[in-house]
Design a protein that fits this description.
Blueprint: H1 2-25, H2 34-56, H3 63-93, H4 100-122
Helix pairs in contact: 1-2, 3-4
């Protein structure tokens, strides 16, 4: 029961975060007033913080759950890296690179290296 509550809570927060991010991008050009934009920005930050708390407080009870967690983390890391890389390549072809894209990709790679070093020293 605890697992279902955690999964539903985490899934619901993740879905709300995705919807807020899509609205923040404003794909159909429906709105872009400063008040709506700043409200969405605050909601995105709040829901990401809640989502991060779910991930950080995640506990594992056996090896199978640990494996599932590793697979999900690897898939998320790879997807994030690929999205940032494609964005960097597309912007490079347009000769207008936003420095945040390669900086975010470099930050992901650096965090992965630091995480591996920390894990080796910890365990």
């Amino acid at each position: 029961m605890k697992f279902l509550n955690q999964l539903f809570g985490e899934t619901a927060v993740a879905l709300v975060l995705i919807v807020l991010l899509v609205c923040f991008i404003n794909p159909l050009d429906w709105w872009m007033t400063d008040a709506v934009h700043m409200t969405l920005l605050g909601l995105v930050a709040a829901f990401f913080a809640i989502f991060a708390m779910f991930i950080w407080r995640e506990s594992v009870s056996d090896e199978r759950e640990q494996l599932h967690r590793f697979i999900a983390a690897r898939l998320a890391y790879t997807a994030g890296g690929m999205i940032l890389l494609v964005g960097t390549v597309l912007q490079a072809m347009a000769h207008a690179i936003d420095p945040w894209l390669p900086a975010a990709l470099a930050g992901m790679v650096f965090a992965k290296i630091l995480g591996r070093v920390y894990a080796r020293k910890l365990y």
